[in-house]
Design a protein that fits this description.
Blueprint (H helix, E strand, L loop, with lengths): L9 H9 L7 H11 L4 E4 L6 H14 L12 E4 L3 H14 L7 E4 L6 H9 L3 E4 L1 H9 L10 E4 L2 H6 L3 H10 L5 E6 L4 H10 L4 E4 L10 E7 L5 H11 L5 E4 L3 H13 L4 E4 L5 H13 L4 E4 L14 E4 L6 H8 L9 E7 L4 H11 L4 E2 L27 H12 L64
Parallel strand pairs: 1-6, 1-7, 2-4, 2-5, 3-4, 5-6, 8-13, 8-14, 9-11, 9-12, 10-11, 12-13
Length: 472
Amino acid sequence: MSFSTLGLSAPILKALNEEGYLNPTPIQSKAIPVILQKKDVLAGAQTGTGKTAGFTLPLLELLSQKTSSNEKKHIRALILTPTRELAAQVGQSVETYGKYLPIKSTVIFGGVGINPQIATLKKGVDILTATPGRLLDHVGQKTIDLSKIEFLILDEADRMLDMGFINDIKKVLALLPKNRQNLLFSATFSDEIKELADNLLNSPVLLEVARRNETGGGISQAVYILDKEKKRELLAHLIKDGSWKQVLVFTRTKHGANKLCEYLIGKEITASAIHGNKSQGARTKALEDFKSGSVRVLVATDIAARGIDIDLLPHVVNFELPNISEDYVHRIGRTGRAGNVGSAISLVCGEELEYLNGIQRLIKQEIKQITLDGFTSKQVYVAEVKPQRGRGNNPSRDQKIRTERNARNGGASAISTKDGQPKRDNNKDRKPWEKDKKSTHSDDRGQKSYGSHSKTDSKPQKNTKFSQGKKY
């Protein structure tokens, strides 16, 4: 299959050909025809599978069909992303694929001056890519009009919820017209994502190109179990001994990222840090230096896990495991992209063994353990015994963390409906992501699955119909 068979116009095909893209990835071949049919989409795909083009290409096609170069520009499509880096990446894709179309686009995010953004918006744009916070800044200053939005795309929706953007998303949804096409792209499907999709999408088509929450097949994964104080020394040893030229390292905190950078530089390994406390200029420079090869190691927090798109990135290291298991999938998805191979290594101390168990349950595989003389832990790692399947209600560690996060952000139940109104209590119908489940458990954690009914449910259930046809 080639892009020319998907219903894209000549200007878009020309831009794709100039970039060397001839054949679509699986998510692109599935998403583009469905979006061109103007259907709502809930898409799940591993990071690095080309899902950005999966929605930008059909979006450009649909907009170009009703665009006049002489008419006054107004915002017709809104793309929301969780991070500045991802917003910039998506905005660049829109510019690249749409360069032969009479379509204007821009990107707005925080950390930079707002006045240049206001000046660009006044000139008129068709496609706006934005982070939620800066978008609402413009709304508050009345420098932006969302009343004529025809398309809404939530990119990396799971990360937006993890970062506490649910209240901002609610406010944005309340400002949009009811009649619009909605696209939700997510690398993982948590309960919050299912609830958001339920409220946002109209009879959506579910698209998946791999088992949900699955890691890329081209990524070799390994784990070292060692004492916490030995981690920095082992990382430096691996980089030097393996002659690693480019490695992305994840820490859990901003302070930890800075301290690790200082240590590596002291070991004559060039390194830069990228996290939320850095100015946008410093973050951009660190990323550019890393891509160019002038910096060998980029140390990042999870805020940078999305939007770092580097061709042929060979190594990702989890210096500390993430609190939320799904973030592991996003982190290591920075390597092994677009069918290439990559290596993901995790350095795990005793207090992180519970996190490791949660990750292995999520990805449904045991990660290979490597031992190295001088870097072994006093604690012995024993693979967790799988819990018995049952209808227990003991929450998992990830669910406890999400519950606490939702409480801080106003509660998961505060998600609004398509027109900004509160969700109805009886909206508990089953959704298509449940149809392939052999039991009521999403990840063998003894937790009741999304959409199942309790014995006390007596209200008539809403019947949401999803698009029929090929099952993805």
